Amino acid sequence: MLLRKESFQVPVLVGLPEGEARNAISNFKWDVVVREGRSDQVKSGEIISSEPGDGVMLKEGESIVLTVSQGPTFSTLEDFTNVASDAALARIDQLGLVPNVAKVNDEAIAAGTVMSWAVAEQPTAKAGDQVVKGTTITLNVSDGPAPRAVPTLVGLTTAEAEAKITELGLVFAVVAEDFNKDVGVGLVGGQLPAAGESLPRGGSVSYWVSKGPRMIPMPVIIGQYKAAIVKLLSEAGFTYGTESGKSERKLKSATIAGEPVGNGKEVPEGSTVDLTYYG
């Protein structure tokens, strides 16, 4: 007399780790067949599907096939070189891959263009090879020419200044001459932007040529007392320098850089005036 085989309902196994799934059906005396598969939704090691599926009645001794995830499915690599970065990023997303963008300055390749690409986990991978979805693709994207640091032009001849500007791929503009007490006549007396600031390639640097210091008349200080002298020099923009003699007496003479100056003489604006009082 044959024993009647008992039937059991297949439980929900999808999404369970393989070990848990086996435990869940271990008392049903089914023949468990395990196959490998890939899924973008089910984690590696978990059940993708069972055959028959959950809810079906299955007799003892019959087979149940469990498909176990080996991880995400594969995508075929494409060549992203010379592709606009926006288009490359969109395509990488469509392939289920993860982009990592590295910006690189380049003098020739237009900004926003992919210069090269690589798979970090598989350095030798190339277009046509397959990688697991979720793999990171590094795109080296041109950021265009590197910014230029504006050089120091003040104190240079105009030829030297223009050569420096041109060498950096910048352009220059010359504006009206102006006074500069610290820079000799005919040399660059000022610039915009200031030295050290950044400009893109092709940016403009303006400079102007020094006319030397502005010449103004020395105030009437010879023969005056100190209080009046201090006020007159300050109002005219001069600096009160050293003093000799008796400062409570009248001023006998004045010098700038060792050269005698008298009342009303044209002298460089902002000069330091050294004073000699009687006594």
Automatic annotation (TrEMBL):
Q: Which residues form the PASTA domain?
A: 4-70, 71-143, 144-211, 212-279
Q: Which residues form the signal peptide?
A: none
Cited Gene3D superfamilies? 3.30.10.20
InterPro entries, alphabetized: PASTA_dom
Q: Which CDD domains match?
A: PASTA_pknB
Q: What is this protein called?
A: Unannotated protein
Q: Which organism is it from?
A: freshwater metagenome
Source organism phylogeny:
unclassified sequences, metagenomes, ecological metagenomes
